[in-house]
Amino acid sequence: MIMQKKINCIILASGNGSNALNLIRIFHTDAGEDKSAACSINISAVVSNIEKAPVIEKVRIAAPDIPVFFLPYASVSEREYFEKELESIIRKYNINCIILAGFMRILSKEFVSKFHKKIINIHPSLLPAFKGKDAIKSAFDYGVKYTGVTVHYVTPEVDAGPVICQEVVKIEENDTLETLELKIHDMEHKIYPAALKKIFI
Ligand code: GRF
Fold first, then answer.
1. For 1-115, which CATH class?
2. I need a surface site. Which of 32, 80, 158, 185 has the fewest CB within 10 A?
């Protein structure tokens, strides 16, 4: 008999939630065959720091059995409360991996150090190029011919942790910011599940 090793993941998201929904579809909703794998990824919970973020409603509709939590974290003054509550959810659901999917807040150095190599992020550029917010627009405005997507471990320095995988997206002459955004998001939806499988399966 194959012993299953479950990797319990929590997703942190602040916005639209396309990456969160994609991971839920792959590892939860459509997971049939993967569930019998020797090691399987389990999406245990979703947390958003924005009460009205579309991701909250989308997850509730797509996967009503996944608990979704709203923990306020709009300004730095709320970070301590957010991280304390998040830690209690992490303990309750026996979480092994924290997946940032469009989580638009910075976690404290203390929190990140406590969960060393357990927090993973996706960033819409080829790091170390175009760190920070609006990376797709920054790459487009700069006029680079190639940009891409990076999945990396989170370290206290923002967008600077060890790279897990990267994929290139070519910017064609006729691309607009909108078409580039679509191409980047398509690539994100391929690379994030692939990165998690690479680590855990
Ligand atoms: C993605 O572009 C991701 O790389 C970045 O934030 C965006 C989130 O998009 N960190 P979504 O909310 O998953 O649609």
1. alpha beta
2. 32
